[in-house]
Amino acid sequence: MGTLNVGNLGEYLREQRRNAQLSLRQLADAAGVSNPYLSQIERGLRKPSADILQQLAKALRISAETLYVQAGILDERDRDGIEVRTAILTDAAINEKQKQVLLQIYESFRRENAAAADAVPVPARPPAPPRRTAARPAGQGPGAGRAGQKKAAAKKAAAKVADAVAETVVARSRALKAIPAREKQHNQDERVIKRREGDDVVGA
């Protein structure tokens, strides 16, 4: 929002009043202002409010935005915000001070958004390349490892069973071999005993 250019505004009002073929008093009466007050506006001595400008525009049958631009309230090059500013300035439910506060807030928001739009965006960092993992040989995955452990344990258990069976077989084999020897020794013992008994009978 620019500063109020009362000099250009006064000249523009005088020109529009003459084009409408209205006297200073006629325009003052139509706009609801005093004749001296309107004279001071045309000479650039008074700063009219947005409400007064709206009343003058209505009396001259021109758009209020035109007077706002001439007064420096609106920027002619900025057409986007004219409707918002006009709605604020023409709202009869709020006073002049409240209108100026709303316009200042609105302008501050527009400046912040414009600054953010003009800011140079920071280039995004390219995504990191995917981490490559060495391919595992076939049969060496997590599942294969567990299966291998189970297989090794089974082999170990089978080996223990085989050793136990082998020990049992050897023990039985030794026992079977010892039986004939004990029987032979027993038979020899019996023959010796019988021989002795025979000798004893003969000596008697």
From TrEMBL:
Keyword Zinc-finger found: no
Gene3D superfamilies the UniProt entry points to: lambda repressor-like DNA-binding domains (1.10.260.40)
Keywords assigned: DNA-binding
Source organism superkingdom: Bacteria
One Pfam family matching this protein: HTH_3
Composition bias type Basic and acidic residues, residue spans: 180-204
Domain HTH cro/C1-type as annotated: residue spans: 13-67
Chain intervals with Basic residues compositional bias: 148-157
InterPro entries in the cross-refs: Cro/C1-type_HTH, Lambda_DNA-bd_dom_sf, TransReg_Diox_bact_type
Chain intervals for the UniProt region annotation (Disordered): 116-157, 175-204
PANTHER family linked to this entry: HTH-TYPE TRANSCRIPTIONAL REGULATOR, METHYLPHOSPHONATE SYNTHASE
Protein name: Helix-turn-helix transcriptional regulator
Species this protein is from: Streptantibioticus silvisoli
